[in-house]
Amino acid sequence: MTETKSQRISINIAEFAIAKHSEIIETQSLGSCVGVALYDRTTKMGGLAHIMLPDSKKVMVGGKPGKYADVAIKLMVDKLQEAGVNKMNLTAKIAGGACMFSGAGISDFMNIGLRNVNAIKQILSEMKIPLVAEDCGANHGRTVEFNLDSGKMTVKSSMASTKEI
Amino acid sequence: MKEDIKTDALLEVLNIGAGQSATALSEILRQKVLINVPDLKFLPIDKVTESLGGAEQKIVGIYFQINGDITGKMLLLFDQKTGHMLAEILTGDKTKREGKLSDIDMSAMMEMANIIANSCLNGLAGLLDMRLMPSIPYYAEDELGAVIDFLLIEMAIVSELAMLVNTEMSTEKGNIKGSLLVFPDDTFMNKIFERLELQKT
Amino acid sequence: MNHEFSAIELDAIQEICNIASGNAAGALSQVLNKRINMKVPEIKIVPVELATEIMGESGAIVAGVYSRLIGDFNGGLLLTFPREDVILLVDKLVGSPSKTHTLSELDVSAISEVGNIICASFVGAISKIINKTVFISVPKLAFDMLGAIVDFILIELAENAEQALIMKIQFEDVPKTISGHFFILPNPGSLEMLLNSIKCRH
Protein backbone atom coordinates (compact mmCIF):
# COMPACT_ATOMS: atom_id res chain seq x y z
CA MET A 1 0.00 0.00 0.00
CA THR A 2 1.46 3.32 -1.00
CA GLU A 3 1.56 5.98 1.66
CA THR A 4 0.38 9.37 0.49
CA LYS A 5 2.77 11.98 1.78
CA SER A 6 1.03 15.13 2.93
CA GLN A 7 2.37 18.19 1.26
CA ARG A 8 3.35 20.86 3.75
CA ILE A 9 2.82 24.51 3.03
CA SER A 10 4.53 26.93 5.38
CA ILE A 11 3.31 30.46 5.86
CA ASN A 12 5.06 33.24 7.68
CA ILE A 13 3.84 36.21 9.66
CA ALA A 14 1.34 38.32 7.70
CA GLU A 15 0.80 35.64 5.03
CA PHE A 16 -1.99 33.25 4.13
CA ALA A 17 -2.41 30.22 1.90
CA ILE A 18 -5.23 28.05 0.66
CA ALA A 19 -4.93 24.31 0.18
CA LYS A 20 -6.82 21.08 -0.42
CA HIS A 21 -7.00 17.56 1.01
CA SER A 22 -3.69 15.72 1.54
CA GLU A 23 -2.09 19.07 2.32
CA ILE A 24 -1.08 20.62 5.61
CA ILE A 25 -0.64 24.35 6.15
CA GLU A 26 1.53 25.36 9.04
CA THR A 27 2.71 28.55 10.67
CA GLN A 28 5.03 29.20 13.57
CA SER A 29 5.66 31.59 16.41
CA LEU A 30 2.19 32.96 16.96
CA GLY A 31 2.59 35.29 19.92
CA SER A 32 -0.03 38.01 19.91
CA CYS A 33 -0.70 37.14 16.27
CA VAL A 34 -3.62 34.83 15.47
CA GLY A 35 -3.73 31.85 13.10
CA VAL A 36 -7.13 31.67 11.39
CA ALA A 37 -8.10 28.49 9.59
CA LEU A 38 -11.13 28.26 7.31
CA TYR A 39 -12.43 24.85 6.21
CA ASP A 40 -15.08 23.31 3.99
CA ARG A 41 -15.48 19.68 5.03
CA THR A 42 -17.40 18.74 1.91
CA THR A 43 -14.62 19.66 -0.52
CA LYS A 44 -11.81 19.35 2.03
CA MET A 45 -10.54 22.73 0.98
CA GLY A 46 -9.50 25.57 3.22
CA GLY A 47 -6.91 28.13 4.18
CA LEU A 48 -4.76 29.40 7.01
CA ALA A 49 -3.75 32.99 7.68
CA HIS A 50 -1.17 34.32 10.15
CA ILE A 51 -2.71 37.60 11.16
CA MET A 52 -0.85 40.48 12.78
CA LEU A 53 -3.28 43.34 13.16
CA PRO A 54 -7.00 43.63 13.69
CA ASP A 55 -7.92 46.40 11.36
CA SER A 56 -6.45 47.73 8.12
CA LYS A 57 -8.34 51.01 8.41
CA LYS A 58 -6.25 52.16 11.34
CA VAL A 59 -2.97 51.86 9.50
CA MET A 60 -1.92 53.79 6.41
CA VAL A 61 1.12 51.71 5.63
CA GLY A 62 0.75 49.21 2.80
CA GLY A 63 1.98 45.75 3.50
CA LYS A 64 1.41 42.08 3.07
CA PRO A 65 -2.29 41.40 2.63
CA GLY A 66 -2.28 38.75 5.35
CA LYS A 67 -1.28 41.36 7.90
CA TYR A 68 -4.78 42.61 8.67
CA ALA A 69 -7.63 40.45 9.85
CA ASP A 70 -10.29 42.17 7.77
CA VAL A 71 -8.32 41.98 4.54
CA ALA A 72 -6.82 38.50 5.06
CA ILE A 73 -10.03 36.71 5.91
CA LYS A 74 -11.92 38.29 2.99
CA LEU A 75 -9.11 37.43 0.57
CA MET A 76 -9.02 33.83 1.78
CA VAL A 77 -12.78 33.49 1.32
CA ASP A 78 -12.56 35.03 -2.19
CA LYS A 79 -9.78 32.66 -3.21
CA LEU A 80 -11.66 29.65 -1.86
CA GLN A 81 -14.79 30.69 -3.73
CA GLU A 82 -12.75 31.00 -6.94
CA ALA A 83 -11.57 27.46 -6.34
CA GLY A 84 -15.15 26.25 -6.12
CA VAL A 85 -15.94 26.39 -2.43
CA ASN A 86 -19.40 27.43 -1.28
CA LYS A 87 -18.95 30.11 1.35
CA MET A 88 -21.93 28.79 3.33
CA ASN A 89 -20.00 25.60 4.07
CA LEU A 90 -17.05 27.32 5.71
CA THR A 91 -16.22 27.01 9.41
CA ALA A 92 -13.34 28.61 11.28
CA LYS A 93 -10.81 27.66 13.96
CA ILE A 94 -8.42 30.14 15.56
CA ALA A 95 -5.32 29.96 17.76
CA GLY A 96 -2.98 32.59 19.20
CA GLY A 97 -3.58 36.04 20.66
CA ALA A 98 -1.38 35.49 23.69
CA CYS A 99 0.01 38.11 26.00
CA MET A 100 3.61 37.01 25.99
CA PHE A 101 4.73 39.14 28.91
CA SER A 102 4.06 38.46 32.55
CA GLY A 103 2.20 41.21 34.33
CA ALA A 104 -0.43 43.17 32.49
CA GLY A 105 0.45 46.77 31.80
CA ILE A 106 -1.32 50.07 31.49
CA SER A 107 -0.41 50.47 27.87
CA ASP A 108 -2.22 49.17 24.83
CA PHE A 109 0.51 46.83 23.71
CA MET A 110 -0.30 44.34 26.42
CA ASN A 111 -3.74 43.82 24.97
CA ILE A 112 -2.86 43.45 21.34
CA GLY A 113 -3.38 39.69 21.40
CA LEU A 114 -6.83 40.06 22.89
CA ARG A 115 -7.68 42.85 20.44
CA ASN A 116 -6.67 40.65 17.51
CA VAL A 117 -8.82 37.78 18.78
CA ASN A 118 -11.85 40.00 19.33
CA ALA A 119 -11.46 41.65 15.93
CA ILE A 120 -11.27 38.28 14.22
CA LYS A 121 -14.32 36.95 16.05
CA GLN A 122 -16.19 40.06 15.00
CA ILE A 123 -15.21 39.67 11.36
CA LEU A 124 -16.13 35.97 11.30
CA SER A 125 -19.47 36.80 12.85
CA GLU A 126 -20.14 39.51 10.26
CA MET A 127 -19.23 37.11 7.48
CA LYS A 128 -21.48 34.46 9.06
CA ILE A 129 -18.64 31.95 9.33
CA PRO A 130 -19.15 29.88 12.48
CA LEU A 131 -16.17 29.67 14.83
CA VAL A 132 -16.07 26.02 15.87
CA ALA A 133 -12.89 25.86 17.95
CA GLU A 134 -10.26 28.13 19.50
CA ASP A 135 -7.11 28.06 21.60
CA CYS A 136 -6.34 31.67 22.44
CA GLY A 137 -4.88 33.84 25.16
CA ALA A 138 -2.56 32.67 27.95
CA ASN A 139 1.14 33.54 27.99
CA HIS A 140 2.74 31.13 25.55
CA GLY A 141 3.70 31.15 21.89
CA ARG A 142 2.03 28.72 19.51
CA THR A 143 2.81 26.81 16.31
CA VAL A 144 -0.17 25.70 14.28
CA GLU A 145 -0.63 22.85 11.78
CA PHE A 146 -3.85 22.77 9.87
CA ASN A 147 -4.63 19.40 8.30
CA LEU A 148 -6.92 19.65 5.27
CA ASP A 149 -7.84 15.94 5.34
CA SER A 150 -9.21 15.94 8.85
CA GLY A 151 -9.94 19.63 9.30
CA LYS A 152 -8.10 19.43 12.60
CA MET A 153 -5.79 22.13 13.92
CA THR A 154 -2.83 20.94 15.97
CA VAL A 155 -1.54 23.63 18.30
CA LYS A 156 1.98 23.11 19.63
CA SER A 157 3.95 25.22 22.07
CA SER A 158 7.45 25.24 23.54
CA MET A 159 5.95 26.25 26.85
CA ALA A 160 2.68 24.32 26.97
CA SER A 161 1.30 20.94 25.95
CA THR A 162 0.08 20.16 22.45
CA LYS A 163 -3.63 20.57 21.76
CA GLU A 164 -5.74 19.34 18.91
CA ILE A 165 -8.81 21.38 18.14
CA MET B 1 22.45 54.44 3.54
CA LYS B 2 21.15 55.31 6.96
CA GLU B 3 22.27 51.95 8.26
CA ASP B 4 25.90 52.70 7.46
CA ILE B 5 26.12 55.75 9.63
CA LYS B 6 29.09 55.99 11.97
CA THR B 7 27.98 54.84 15.35
CA ASP B 8 31.03 55.65 17.45
CA ALA B 9 29.38 58.36 19.50
CA LEU B 10 26.51 56.05 20.28
CA LEU B 11 28.81 53.18 21.21
CA GLU B 12 30.69 55.49 23.49
CA VAL B 13 27.68 56.56 25.54
CA LEU B 14 26.40 53.01 25.68
CA ASN B 15 29.76 51.79 26.97
CA ILE B 16 29.79 54.49 29.62
CA GLY B 17 26.33 53.35 30.65
CA ALA B 18 27.50 49.75 30.58
CA GLY B 19 30.29 50.66 32.95
CA GLN B 20 27.85 52.27 35.35
CA SER B 21 25.59 49.21 35.24
CA ALA B 22 28.56 46.96 35.84
CA THR B 23 29.58 48.94 38.91
CA ALA B 24 26.08 48.74 40.35
CA LEU B 25 25.79 45.03 39.58
CA SER B 26 29.21 44.36 41.08
CA GLU B 27 27.96 45.92 44.28
CA ILE B 28 24.74 43.95 44.31
CA LEU B 29 26.30 40.62 43.43
CA ARG B 30 29.44 41.16 45.49
CA GLN B 31 31.59 40.00 42.63
CA LYS B 32 33.43 41.72 39.83
CA VAL B 33 31.14 42.34 36.87
CA LEU B 34 32.24 43.91 33.61
CA ILE B 35 29.90 44.90 30.80
CA ASN B 36 31.07 45.79 27.32
CA VAL B 37 29.20 47.00 24.25
CA PRO B 38 31.44 45.92 21.37
CA ASP B 39 29.21 46.92 18.48
CA LEU B 40 25.78 47.90 17.30
CA LYS B 41 23.92 48.22 14.04
CA PHE B 42 20.79 49.68 12.56
CA LEU B 43 18.69 47.29 10.56
CA PRO B 44 15.27 47.10 8.90
CA ILE B 45 12.66 45.81 11.32
CA ASP B 46 11.78 42.87 9.10
CA LYS B 47 15.39 41.63 9.30
CA VAL B 48 15.47 41.58 13.10
CA THR B 49 14.20 38.03 13.62
CA GLU B 50 16.70 36.62 11.14
CA SER B 51 19.55 38.57 12.73
CA LEU B 52 18.83 37.06 16.10
CA GLY B 53 18.82 33.45 14.95
CA GLY B 54 15.32 32.92 13.59
CA ALA B 55 11.77 32.83 14.90
CA GLU B 56 12.11 29.44 16.55
CA GLN B 57 15.05 30.34 18.79
CA LYS B 58 14.04 29.98 22.41
CA ILE B 59 14.85 33.17 24.26
CA VAL B 60 14.51 34.92 27.56
CA GLY B 61 13.54 38.56 27.14
CA ILE B 62 12.88 41.57 29.32
CA TYR B 63 10.87 44.34 27.75
CA PHE B 64 10.66 48.05 28.56
CA GLN B 65 8.70 50.87 27.05
CA ILE B 66 10.75 54.00 26.57
CA ASN B 67 9.04 57.08 27.96
CA GLY B 68 9.97 60.71 28.04
CA ASP B 69 10.57 63.40 25.46
CA ILE B 70 10.55 60.68 22.81
CA THR B 71 9.21 57.14 22.86
CA GLY B 72 9.99 53.65 21.73
CA LYS B 73 10.45 50.11 22.94
CA MET B 74 13.41 48.13 24.19
CA LEU B 75 14.05 44.40 24.67
CA LEU B 76 17.03 42.84 26.38
CA LEU B 77 17.31 39.27 25.24
CA PHE B 78 19.40 36.18 25.71
CA ASP B 79 19.09 32.73 24.19
CA GLN B 80 17.39 30.44 26.69
CA LYS B 81 20.51 28.56 27.74
CA THR B 82 22.40 31.78 28.39
CA GLY B 83 19.40 33.24 30.20
CA HIS B 84 19.30 30.27 32.54
CA MET B 85 23.02 30.55 33.17
CA LEU B 86 22.59 34.24 33.94
CA ALA B 87 19.80 33.45 36.41
CA GLU B 88 22.15 31.04 38.13
CA ILE B 89 24.86 33.71 38.37
CA LEU B 90 22.45 36.34 39.66
CA THR B 91 20.79 34.20 42.30
CA GLY B 92 23.68 31.92 43.20
CA ASP B 93 21.22 29.05 42.95
CA LYS B 94 22.80 26.23 40.96
CA THR B 95 19.67 24.03 40.70
CA LYS B 96 19.18 22.86 37.15
CA ARG B 97 16.49 24.89 35.48
CA GLU B 98 13.89 23.05 33.43
CA GLY B 99 11.28 24.92 31.46
CA LYS B 100 10.51 28.51 32.41
CA LEU B 101 12.48 30.33 35.07
CA SER B 102 11.06 30.56 38.58
CA ASP B 103 9.64 33.76 40.07
CA ILE B 104 12.85 34.36 42.01
CA ASP B 105 14.95 33.90 38.87
CA MET B 106 12.64 36.19 36.90
CA SER B 107 12.84 38.84 39.60
CA ALA B 108 16.65 38.76 39.57
CA MET B 109 16.71 38.99 35.78
CA MET B 110 14.32 41.93 35.83
CA GLU B 111 16.39 43.78 38.43
CA MET B 112 19.53 43.35 36.34
CA ALA B 113 17.72 44.38 33.18
CA ASN B 114 16.28 47.42 34.98
CA ILE B 115 19.77 48.67 35.76
CA ILE B 116 20.95 48.09 32.20
CA ALA B 117 17.87 49.74 30.70
CA ASN B 118 18.26 52.78 32.94
CA SER B 119 21.92 53.27 32.15
CA CYS B 120 21.33 52.79 28.44
CA LEU B 121 18.57 55.42 28.41
CA ASN B 122 20.63 57.76 30.60
CA GLY B 123 23.35 57.57 27.98
CA LEU B 124 20.98 58.17 25.09
CA ALA B 125 19.27 60.98 27.00
CA GLY B 126 22.62 62.67 27.51
CA LEU B 127 23.60 62.29 23.87
CA LEU B 128 20.29 63.65 22.60
CA ASP B 129 19.84 66.20 25.39
CA MET B 130 16.42 64.81 26.26
CA ARG B 131 14.62 63.17 29.15
CA LEU B 132 14.19 59.43 28.86
CA MET B 133 13.17 56.76 31.32
CA PRO B 134 12.19 53.12 31.05
CA SER B 135 8.89 51.63 32.19
CA ILE B 136 8.91 48.84 34.74
CA PRO B 137 10.29 45.61 33.23
CA TYR B 138 8.12 42.89 31.66
CA TYR B 139 9.39 39.33 31.31
CA ALA B 140 8.90 36.78 28.54
CA GLU B 141 10.40 33.38 27.81
CA ASP B 142 9.44 31.56 24.62
CA GLU B 143 10.29 31.39 20.92
CA LEU B 144 11.74 34.64 19.57
CA GLY B 145 9.06 34.99 16.91
CA ALA B 146 6.23 34.74 19.41
CA VAL B 147 7.90 37.16 21.84
CA ILE B 148 8.62 39.91 19.36
CA ASP B 149 5.69 39.63 16.97
CA PHE B 150 3.84 42.40 18.76
CA LEU B 151 6.95 44.60 18.58
CA LEU B 152 7.21 44.03 14.86
CA ILE B 153 3.55 44.89 14.55
CA GLU B 154 3.61 48.06 16.58
CA MET B 155 6.98 49.40 15.56
CA ALA B 156 6.76 48.68 11.84
CA ILE B 157 3.96 51.24 11.83
CA VAL B 158 6.14 53.99 13.24
CA SER B 159 9.67 53.28 12.07
CA GLU B 160 11.63 51.38 9.41
CA LEU B 161 14.69 50.70 11.46
CA ALA B 162 15.61 49.11 14.75
CA MET B 163 18.90 49.23 16.63
CA LEU B 164 20.59 45.99 17.63
CA VAL B 165 23.24 46.36 20.31
CA ASN B 166 25.54 43.50 21.25
CA THR B 167 26.40 43.28 24.91
CA GLU B 168 28.93 41.13 26.73
CA MET B 169 28.94 40.64 30.44
CA SER B 170 31.74 38.92 32.30
CA THR B 171 31.55 37.82 35.89
CA GLU B 172 33.66 35.57 38.09
CA LYS B 173 31.14 32.83 37.46
CA GLY B 174 30.89 33.03 33.70
CA ASN B 175 30.53 35.16 30.57
CA ILE B 176 27.21 36.13 29.07
CA LYS B 177 26.35 37.41 25.61
CA GLY B 178 23.11 39.22 25.07
CA SER B 179 21.38 41.57 22.68
CA LEU B 180 19.64 44.82 23.36
CA LEU B 181 17.03 45.59 20.74
CA VAL B 182 15.95 49.19 20.66
CA PHE B 183 12.94 50.27 18.62
CA PRO B 184 12.86 54.06 18.62
CA ASP B 185 9.83 55.77 17.14
CA ASP B 186 10.45 57.94 14.11
CA THR B 187 11.22 61.16 16.00
CA PHE B 188 13.64 59.36 18.24
CA MET B 189 15.37 57.70 15.30
CA ASN B 190 15.71 61.00 13.47
CA LYS B 191 17.19 62.63 16.56
CA ILE B 192 19.74 59.83 16.85
CA PHE B 193 20.83 60.18 13.24
CA GLU B 194 20.94 63.95 13.53
CA ARG B 195 23.23 63.71 16.52
CA LEU B 196 25.43 61.07 14.91
CA GLU B 197 25.78 63.22 11.77
CA LEU B 198 26.93 66.12 13.94
CA GLN B 199 29.46 63.94 15.70
CA LYS B 200 30.99 62.78 12.43
CA THR B 201 33.00 65.98 11.99
CA MET C 1 22.88 62.61 65.98
CA ASN C 2 20.20 64.26 63.92
CA HIS C 3 21.31 66.96 61.57
CA GLU C 4 19.75 70.40 61.99
CA PHE C 5 18.68 71.65 58.59
CA SER C 6 19.52 75.24 57.76
CA ALA C 7 17.21 77.47 55.74
CA ILE C 8 19.50 77.17 52.71
CA GLU C 9 19.44 73.41 52.89
CA LEU C 10 15.68 73.30 53.22
CA ASP C 11 15.30 75.65 50.26
CA ALA C 12 17.61 73.51 48.18
CA ILE C 13 15.66 70.39 49.09
CA GLN C 14 12.40 72.13 48.18
CA GLU C 15 13.94 73.03 44.84
CA ILE C 16 14.96 69.43 44.18
CA CYS C 17 11.42 68.32 45.00
CA ASN C 18 9.87 70.90 42.69
CA ILE C 19 12.07 69.88 39.79
CA ALA C 20 11.46 66.22 40.42
CA SER C 21 7.69 66.56 40.74
CA GLY C 22 7.58 68.64 37.57
CA ASN C 23 9.46 65.91 35.71
CA ALA C 24 7.28 63.23 37.22
CA ALA C 25 4.07 65.02 36.24
CA GLY C 26 5.40 65.46 32.70
CA ALA C 27 6.38 61.82 32.41
CA LEU C 28 3.07 60.64 33.87
CA SER C 29 1.12 62.84 31.47
CA GLN C 30 3.04 61.45 28.53
CA VAL C 31 2.78 57.81 29.56
CA LEU C 32 -0.89 57.98 30.42
CA ASN C 33 -1.82 60.32 27.59
CA LYS C 34 -3.72 62.43 30.10
CA ARG C 35 -2.95 65.74 31.71
CA ILE C 36 -1.59 64.92 35.16
CA ASN C 37 -0.97 67.63 37.73
CA MET C 38 1.23 66.77 40.63
CA LYS C 39 2.07 69.05 43.53
CA VAL C 40 4.35 68.75 46.54
CA PRO C 41 2.66 71.11 49.01
CA GLU C 42 4.65 70.04 52.04
CA ILE C 43 8.05 68.64 52.92
CA LYS C 44 9.06 67.50 56.38
CA ILE C 45 12.33 66.11 57.60
CA VAL C 46 11.78 64.01 60.67
CA PRO C 47 13.45 61.33 62.75
CA VAL C 48 12.56 58.01 61.23
CA GLU C 49 10.61 56.84 64.32
CA LEU C 50 8.05 59.52 63.59
CA ALA C 51 7.62 58.66 59.89
CA THR C 52 4.50 56.53 60.27
CA GLU C 53 2.83 59.16 62.45
CA ILE C 54 3.45 61.90 59.88
CA MET C 55 2.14 59.81 57.02
CA GLY C 56 -1.11 58.79 58.67
CA GLU C 57 -2.64 56.22 60.98
CA SER C 58 -0.45 53.19 61.55
CA GLY C 59 -3.42 50.90 60.99
CA ALA C 60 -4.71 52.60 57.87
CA ILE C 61 -4.74 50.50 54.72
CA VAL C 62 -2.55 52.00 52.04
CA ALA C 63 -1.05 51.01 48.73
CA GLY C 64 2.70 51.36 49.10
CA VAL C 65 5.20 51.28 46.27
CA TYR C 66 8.72 50.84 47.51
CA SER C 67 12.10 50.77 45.90
CA ARG C 68 15.72 50.62 47.01
CA LEU C 69 18.37 53.08 45.95
CA ILE C 70 21.41 51.43 44.37
CA GLY C 71 24.77 52.96 43.69
CA ASP C 72 26.51 55.95 45.21
CA PHE C 73 23.39 57.05 47.05
CA ASN C 74 21.79 54.40 49.23
CA GLY C 75 18.55 54.06 51.06
CA GLY C 76 14.90 53.45 50.38
CA LEU C 77 11.89 55.08 48.78
CA LEU C 78 8.23 54.64 49.62
CA LEU C 79 5.19 56.10 47.92
CA THR C 80 1.89 55.60 49.75
CA PHE C 81 -1.73 56.33 48.92
CA PRO C 82 -4.67 55.62 51.19
CA ARG C 83 -6.79 52.75 49.94
CA GLU C 84 -9.78 54.77 48.72
CA ASP C 85 -7.57 57.27 46.92
CA VAL C 86 -5.58 54.60 45.18
CA ILE C 87 -8.76 53.08 43.78
CA LEU C 88 -9.70 56.49 42.36
CA LEU C 89 -6.20 56.98 40.97
CA VAL C 90 -6.22 53.60 39.29
CA ASP C 91 -9.65 54.26 37.78
CA LYS C 92 -8.27 57.40 36.20
CA LEU C 93 -5.14 55.65 34.96
CA VAL C 94 -6.67 52.46 33.71
CA GLY C 95 -9.99 53.95 32.72
CA SER C 96 -12.29 51.24 33.93
CA PRO C 97 -14.00 51.79 37.27
CA SER C 98 -13.21 48.91 39.56
CA LYS C 99 -16.22 47.10 40.78
CA THR C 100 -14.52 45.65 43.79
CA HIS C 101 -12.12 47.21 46.20
CA THR C 102 -9.29 44.85 45.49
CA LEU C 103 -6.50 45.45 43.02
CA SER C 104 -6.28 43.41 39.85
CA GLU C 105 -3.01 42.54 38.11
CA LEU C 106 -3.60 45.46 35.76
CA ASP C 107 -4.12 47.83 38.69
CA VAL C 108 -0.93 46.60 40.35
CA SER C 109 1.00 47.28 37.16
CA ALA C 110 -0.53 50.72 36.79
CA ILE C 111 0.38 51.73 40.34
CA SER C 112 3.87 50.27 39.98
CA GLU C 113 4.38 52.27 36.80
CA VAL C 114 3.29 55.46 38.57
CA GLY C 115 5.60 54.66 41.47
CA ASN C 116 8.44 53.93 39.07
CA ILE C 117 8.05 57.29 37.36
CA ILE C 118 7.87 59.23 40.63
CA CYS C 119 10.83 57.39 42.16
CA ALA C 120 12.89 57.72 38.98
CA SER C 121 12.14 61.45 38.78
CA PHE C 122 13.26 62.09 42.35
CA VAL C 123 16.31 59.91 42.02
CA GLY C 124 17.16 61.64 38.76
CA ALA C 125 17.08 65.02 40.46
CA ILE C 126 19.21 63.79 43.36
CA SER C 127 21.66 62.14 41.03
CA LYS C 128 22.14 65.44 39.17
CA ILE C 129 22.87 67.37 42.37
CA ILE C 130 25.38 64.90 43.75
CA ASN C 131 26.74 64.30 40.26
CA LYS C 132 26.80 60.57 40.76
CA THR C 133 25.08 57.50 39.33
CA VAL C 134 22.07 56.26 41.25
CA PHE C 135 19.72 53.45 40.21
CA ILE C 136 16.47 52.24 41.72
CA SER C 137 15.35 48.66 42.16
CA VAL C 138 12.18 47.44 40.42
CA PRO C 139 9.30 48.93 42.44
CA LYS C 140 7.30 46.51 44.54
CA LEU C 141 3.73 47.04 45.60
CA ALA C 142 2.26 46.29 48.99
CA PHE C 143 -1.38 46.80 49.96
CA ASP C 144 -1.44 46.67 53.73
CA MET C 145 -1.38 48.67 56.95
CA LEU C 146 0.89 51.71 56.78
CA GLY C 147 2.77 50.76 59.94
CA ALA C 148 3.50 47.29 58.64
CA ILE C 149 4.83 48.59 55.35
CA VAL C 150 7.11 51.19 56.95
CA ASP C 151 8.44 48.58 59.40
CA PHE C 152 9.17 46.24 56.54
CA ILE C 153 11.19 48.86 54.72
CA LEU C 154 13.20 49.76 57.79
CA ILE C 155 14.08 46.10 58.26
CA GLU C 156 14.92 45.68 54.57
CA LEU C 157 17.28 48.61 54.71
CA ALA C 158 18.99 47.22 57.78
CA GLU C 159 20.97 50.41 58.25
CA ASN C 160 20.40 52.70 61.16
CA ALA C 161 18.86 55.37 59.04
CA GLU C 162 18.10 58.34 61.21
CA GLN C 163 16.18 60.89 59.28
CA ALA C 164 13.44 60.64 56.71
CA LEU C 165 12.38 63.15 54.11
CA ILE C 166 8.61 63.01 53.82
CA MET C 167 6.65 64.83 51.16
CA LYS C 168 2.95 65.18 50.77
CA ILE C 169 2.01 64.58 47.12
CA GLN C 170 -1.21 65.68 45.50
CA PHE C 171 -2.85 64.71 42.27
CA GLU C 172 -5.64 67.01 41.22
CA ASP C 173 -8.88 66.31 39.36
CA VAL C 174 -8.86 62.61 39.83
CA PRO C 175 -11.88 63.57 39.98
CA LYS C 176 -11.15 65.12 43.34
CA THR C 177 -7.73 65.91 44.77
CA ILE C 178 -6.02 62.85 46.12
CA SER C 179 -3.08 62.95 48.47
CA GLY C 180 -0.34 60.54 49.19
CA HIS C 181 3.10 60.63 50.68
CA PHE C 182 6.54 60.14 49.26
CA PHE C 183 9.16 59.11 51.74
CA ILE C 184 12.91 59.11 51.11
CA LEU C 185 15.04 57.33 53.65
CA PRO C 186 18.71 57.95 52.89
CA ASN C 187 21.51 56.20 54.70
CA PRO C 188 23.28 58.68 56.98
CA GLY C 189 26.35 58.75 54.73
CA SER C 190 24.20 59.41 51.70
CA LEU C 191 22.29 62.21 53.39
CA GLU C 192 25.60 63.82 54.26
CA MET C 193 26.70 63.51 50.64
CA LEU C 194 23.52 65.25 49.49
CA LEU C 195 23.96 68.09 51.99
CA ASN C 196 27.60 68.56 51.03
CA SER C 197 26.61 68.80 47.37
CA ILE C 198 23.98 71.38 48.24
CA LYS C 199 26.55 73.38 50.24
CA CYS C 200 29.02 73.30 47.35
CA ARG C 201 26.46 74.75 45.00
CA HIS C 202 25.90 77.82 47.16
Protein described:
The complex is a heterotrimer of chains A (165), B (201) and C (202). Chain A is α+β, with helices and mostly antiparallel strands and 165 residues long. Chain A is built from two helices and ten strands; from the N terminus they run βββββαβαββββ. A five-stranded mixed β-sheet of chain A has the order 1-3-8-9-10, with no helix packed on it. In chain B, α1 runs antiparallel to α4 and α3 crosses α4 (103-128). Chain B has one domain (2-196): CheC-like (Chemotaxis protein chec, 3-Layer(aba) Sandwich). Chain B has helices at residues 8-29, 48-51, 80-91, 103-128, 144-158, 186-200; strands spanning 33-44, 58-68, 72-79, 132-134, 138-143, 161-171, 174-184. In chain B, strands 1, 2, 3, 4, 5, 6 and 7 form a seven-stranded antiparallel β-sheet that branches. The two termini of chain B are 18 Å apart. Chain B is of the alpha+beta class. Chain C has 202 residues and is an alpha+beta fold. Helices cover 47% and strands 28% of the residues of chain C. Chain C contains six helices and seven strands. In chain C, strands 1, 2, 3, 4, 5, 6 and 7 form a seven-stranded antiparallel β-sheet that branches. In chain C, β2 and β3 form a beta hairpin. Chain C is globular and about 50 Å long. The two termini of chain C are 24 Å apart. Chains in contact: A-B, A-C, B-C. Chain A binds chain B through residues 13, 28-33, 52-53, 59, 61, 63, 98, 100-103, 105, 107, 109-110, 112-113, 139-143, 157-159, and chain B through 55-56, 58, 63, 65, 73, 99-100, 106, 135-136, 138-150, 152-154, 156-157.
Key phrases:
heterotrimer; A: alpha+beta; 60s Ribosomal Protein L30, Chain: A; five-stranded mixed β-sheet; B: 201 residues; seven-stranded antiparallel β-sheet; 31% strand
Largest sheet entry of chain A: 5 strands, mixed
Helical amount of chain C = 40-55%
Under CATH, the topology of chain A is which? 60s Ribosomal Protein L30, Chain: A
Q: Count the domains of chain C.
A: 1
The run of helices and strands of chain A is EEEEEHEHEEEE
From the N-terminal CA to the C-terminal CA of chain C, the straight-line distance is: 24 Å
- β-sheet strand percentage of chain C: 25-35%
Q: How would you write the strand order of the largest sheet of chain A? A: 1-3-8-9-10
Largest sheet of chain C: 7 strands, antiparallel
User: What are the segments of chain A in which pLDDT stays under 50 over at least 5 consecutive residues?
Assistant: none
Based on CA inertia axes, which overall geometry of chain C fits?
globular
Taking the alpha carbons of the first and last residues of chain A, their distance comes to 29 Å
| Number of self-contained structural domains of chain A | 1
